[in-house]
Amino acid sequence: MPQVEFNGETFSIDEDGFIDDYSNWSEGWVQYVKKVEGIEELNDEHHLVIAMLREYYEKNGIAPMVRVLSKVTKFKLKHIYELFPSGPGKGACKMAGLPKPTGCV
Amino acid sequence: MSKSKMVKISDISKDSDKLTSVAVEDLMPLPGDFEDKEWDEIPEETREQYACILDDVNILQIPLPKTTKEEEELVNKFINGMRKLFTKEDNWTFLTLLETTMEYCAKCNTCSDSCHLFEASGENEMYRPNYRTEIFRRIYKKYVKEEPLSKWRNGDVDLNWRTVARIGELAYRCNICRRCAQTCPIGADNALVAREIRKIFSQEMGIATPELHKSGSMLQLQYGSSTKMNKLIVRDNIDFIDEDFSEETGYEFKTPWDVEGADILLIHNAGEIMAWPENIAAFSIIFQAAGISWTLSSDLAAYDSINYGVFYDDVQFARTAILQAQAATRLGVKKIVLGECGHAHKALTVIADRVLPEPLKIPRESCFPILRDIVMSGKIKFDPERNNFPVTLHDPCNITRLMGIIKPQRDIVKKLCPQFREMNPHGPFNYCCGGGSGYAIMSRNNIPEWRFKITGRKKLSQILDAFSDCRGSEMKKYVCAPCSNCKGQIRDIFKRYDLFEKEQLAYGGLVELIVNAMVDVNPGYIKWGEEY
Hints:
Structural class of chain A: mainly alpha
Mean pLDDT of chain B: 96
CATH topology of chain A: Arc Repressor Mutant, subunit A
Radius of gyration of chain A: 13 Å
Helix content of chain A: 40-55%
Largest interface: A-B, 27 and 41 residues
Mean pLDDT of chain A: 95
Helix content of chain B: 40-55%
CATH superfamily of chain A: DsrC protein, C-terminal domain
Oligomer: heterodimer
Number of helices of chain B: 25
CATH class of chain A: Mainly Alpha
Strand order of the largest sheet of chain B: 2-1-3-4
Strand order of the largest sheet of chain A: 1-2
Structural class of chain B: mainly alpha
Number of strands of chain B: 8
Radius of gyration of chain B: 23 Å
Largest sheet of chain A: 2 strands, antiparallel
Number of domains of chain A: 1
Distance between the termini of chain A: 24 Å
Low-confidence stretches of chain B: none
Low-confidence stretches of chain A: none
Largest sheet of chain B: 4 strands, parallel
Number of strands of chain A: 2
Strand content of chain A: 5-15%
């Protein structure tokens, strides 16, 4: 599994760039994904999305439906794309330390 | 022609790095101003671990052999798998068609002109549909069938580990759209050969792409869905969809679960629930409004129509199909109806006939004829003015070319969409979206580039041509793509070239267009620019 070093921390990632294990997530990982995703600045809205995803994942073992994410955060999908240019799955879930969503999504 | 496009049959066994590369200047031009860049390199970790000796991409992860013994093992296992492939005990699905393809190809290469990969790549020899087949055929004749003097009669091939690794990887350079099989005067099926090579790797060698196997069919069998939704989560999500869309549409509806004796068991691709819930809600609204007796099932694998085995493995295929058919017999429904998912149509309505035992062979059919009957019945009131924007229709290969379901969806869009226009060509002669055979769910390393530059290029070109009278960001346009896999591919390629903004394109299914025109539903069911 490829390893990346960022600000003194080392993370193992899969070939989609997702973290190997949910429990290895840290603030440093968030900063790393911010850089690779080309996000200029992280604001409260990013953190709200991350917190929601992590809470849902801890309870259910998978990521929520995109529409549930929209409903809870009150962000339209378009806005989620503005926050995370790669979208809710490949951008937001990645930053929140969730595995890559599977199936035809 | 650039030198790198001139791949020869004998190159397949060559002791070298990759055999070809598609240069940006060789790509088929797109209508308009589109910029492509050179390929991103496959990362070093991947190149050290897996055989990346074909072209610019790595899709099947074949472990790079480290010793001569491992090299020999790779060859022996492949040949062993190939021998099994040609016996009826071990090949449950397509033996006759495979033998036809091995024996009767006249090498006229008519198939090449029908292939969108060959065309998009600027006619790179590597992506001729018959390039892969011809190598496979020579191996078959020489090592499996052991025809006397085969190398003189059929042409020779040098079989070493590189040949095997390259042919395995090359099996993942095909959308399995079967346009080549359609055009072949004899009926040889190069797409089938690609699929059967994938099968040897999976069933005999334990090598399959992680998206289709580990995170695909294995999750389907363990949790009930490749999305990893178990029974509780899927029920919860559908409850949410019912509530949320009842509120939004002003049309109260409830999705029925596990109704014994219902006429229809509807099976959606569960990816729709996660990513396109408006498709799920639209089905529930239409079926309720038309008074259909129907249900979903919460049994394992019966709330997700996906069956990725179609793309690579008969055993995984059979396991999944049996679970789905069992759920239907348990409920005692009259038939299974498949939602908007192309490969699920192929899986459960066509191939399943070859693996289901008699008691499980209950009627299985497509949603399109039923939807057509509902729309034409007069039970639901429509206002086509609500769909008065340019609409074009994408034909999922498995529903149209394979099954011949062409007219029902057209009857619907012609009735409900005043500005409907066909793509050229369409119907049975359609082109694949570019996501077929599993690509739509793959985003590892530089695989998206493969999907955007090569496999999806023809479809993108067709879509833009269909809207040649209304290009640009002034007018909203809708691509109706009634298949989850196709939608995923179309979404990603629109995103890649920024077409949601530049062309005001929206994409979605057929049922969304139906509900968008329903008088009893609040206007504006279809959303543009991912606005909800």
